[in-house]
Design a protein that fits this description.
Blueprint: H1 3-15, E1 23-26, E2 31-34, H2 36-45, H3 52-73, H4 77-91, H5 94-112, H6 116-122, H7 126-137, H8 146-154, E3 162-165, E4 168-171, H9 173-182, E5 193-194, H10 201-209
Parallel strand pairs: 4-5
Antiparallel strand pairs: 1-2, 3-4
Helix pairs in contact: 1-2, 4-8, 5-7, 5-8, 8-9
């Protein structure tokens, strides 16, 4: 981390931002990421600071990372997924939407390095940006497995690759492979997913907890 980034991160901490949640640094790629909340905290704590330089650097990085991911998958994954997310936010209850967003966004970033939260906020009105930030901070989230369907289909899967019946998610083997190509996290999908005859529970558990 260079001196400029170190100074910025000290300012963020002093402003009340949380390392790892509101901001982070990718040492290998020499870039940093800041959440919308981090920008707001900086603006309030240091009103004289020009934040445009930080916003432009972060935005260019996320857009480039999204483009690279789309090329790797051979499909406009990020564009398709962001459109689906916007639709879900209009359909789901607040508690369901909170679960959906928190699991989906964090898991995609852990697996791919693409911060979809920033790209999503750029597509929304200020009012809806504030709503999304509230959902990402909400503790009272209820399980909503639609995030798996949307990830698989955005990555090129078909509706037949993900079937949701009551509290059970049925994934085909290609569906599971697509899910794990774009998502990883602490949520134990093996408790929810029945992959059928092509993969057993141990294989699902190993895939779900494998790092990128």
């Amino acid at each position: 981390m260079d001196d400029g980034a170190a100074q910025l991160f000290r300012m963020l901490v002093e402003a009340g931002a949380t390392p790892g949640k509101d901001f982070s640094c990718d040492a290998e790629r020499h870039v940093y990421r800041m959440s919308e909340r981090a920008y707001i905290l900086l603006q309030l704590a240091y009103p004289e600071l020009d934040l445009s330089q930080f916003a432009s650097k972060s935005t260019r990085d996320e857009a480039a990372a999204a483009t690279a991911l789309n090329q790797q998958l051979g499909i406009d994954f990020t564009g398709r997924l962001l459109t689906r997310i916007e639709q879900r936010l209009q359909q789901l209850s607040p508690a369901d939407a909170a679960w959906y967003l928190q699991l989906l966004l964090s898991g995609v970033e852990q697996r791919t390095g693409v911060g979809l939260d920033q790209l999503l906020l750029e597509r929304l009105s200020p009012e809806n940006q504030a709503w999304v930030n509230q959902l990402l901070e909400m503790d009272a989230a209820t399980p909503c497995d639609l995030w798996m369907r949307d990830l698989v289909e955005a990555a090129g899967g078909s509706p037949e690759d993900v079937e949701i019946e009551n509290d059970e998610v049925l994934l085909s083997e290609p569906g599971l492979a697509l899910l794990m190509s774009v998502w990883v996290g602490e949520y134990d999908v093996s408790e929810t997913i029945d992959v059928g005859d092509t993969a057993d529970a141990d294989e699902v558990d190993d895939a779900a907890n494998e790092g990128s």
